[in-house]
Amino acid sequence: MNHIQNRQEYIEECGLIMEQSGLTRMVGRIIGYLAVTDKELVSFDEFTEVLQASKSTISTSVKMLTSMNLIKAATLPGDRKTYYRLAPDYCWSQILRLKTGILSIMYAMFIKGIEFRIRKTDKTAQWLTEAAEFYKFMEQEIPGLLDKWEAQKQLTK
Amino acid sequence: MNHIQNRQEYIEECGLIMEQSGLTRMVGRIIGYLAVTDKELVSFDEFTEVLQASKSTISTSVKMLTSMNLIKAATLPGDRKTYYRLAPDYCWSQILRLKTGILSIMYAMFIKGIEFRIRKTDKTAQWLTEAAEFYKFMEQEIPGLLDKWEAQKQLTK
DNA sequence: AAATAAGTTCGATACATACCGAACTAATAG
DNA sequence: CTATTAGTTCGGTATGTATCGAACTTATTT
């Protein structure tokens, strides 16, 4: 294939996209590098070199990714270094399950708004009710959707 | 009802929540104020006073909210001012429909990662494939979910 | 024990951007 | 035709935070 884009540009693009979706640029670069490298394991040190970042930034970034279960640390006998790889059997649905918390917060926010109103059935109150119902709907439906994904994934194994 | 929280605290809380969900604090305050005020229409000027914000901030904020269709401008005969209210018949599903763009971007990102790899069927390639499939699944399922919401809402009218 | 290696932590920096203030535009009023 | 009102625009500020650099920790090697 005739790649218009090289690996390094791809890694930077991953950084921008992951930043856009709420993580940090460096976290995105790490995922990007793990995606395109042909090595099975990448050392802490290799990240600092290939991503041109400080040890401290790599340290906090791999911790963030590890706590999200997106990457997994690995060690080798007779080797002091820590290596990383994309987490095997990562469950993608969990990335959304964690984010559904904001849905109930939005629901509660709109419901609470109604309680401040003198007229609890006017246009504004109706607007707030519909807003709250939308977020409640989403909060109820998304788990089912994620279950469906997990079940579907299980079948193909 | 015995409100532990007053209106002003509620408005600030709206600011923080909307900020958390990707908008700005001031935009959240505007929604919050429109939620709790008993006035049908709120003038530009009233926002600056009650939210203690500059005209420029209110100007950009109401523009943002107007472009999202969340609020609607209103004018009165013989009155030069612009008033605002929560948009009647706002379609809540659109707020998510707009955000689904990131899903296809994530899908494309993971697919592109595979193309850089020498081994296109190893563990990493499989990881990328599953990631891509997850985002494709979401991109496919969410419109249906939003349709379901819209249909359900239509029934109750 | 001294030196090296592998990460961590924490104060400082640099960058992005929400918000402000002042100058400006356009329309109406006196 | 000047003054006022209503809002916009744009350069600057200030706040939050991702990233950096240096000091520190802990373990290993010589």
What does this 3D model show about the protein?
The structure is a homodimer of 157-residue chains. Chain A has 157 residues and is mainly alpha-helical. Chain A has 2 domains: 7-90, Winged helix-like DNA-binding domain superfamily/Winged helix DNA-binding domain (Arc Repressor Mutant, subunit A, Orthogonal Bundle); 94-155. Chain A has helices at residues 7-20, 25-36, 44-50, 55-67, 93-97, 101-115, 123-155, and strands at residues 42-43, 71-74, 83-86. In chain A, strands 1-3-2 form a 3-stranded antiparallel beta sheet. In chain A, strand 2 and strand 3 (83-86) form a beta hairpin. In chain A, helix 1 (7-20) packs across helix 2 and helix 6 (101-115) packs antiparallel against helix 7 (123-155). Chain A is elongated. At the A-B interface, helix 1, helix 2, helix 6 and helix 7 of A face helix 1, helix 2, helix 6 and helix 7 of B. Chain A binds a DNA duplex (30 and 30 nucleotides) through residues 19, 24-26, 44-45, 53-61, 63, 80-82.
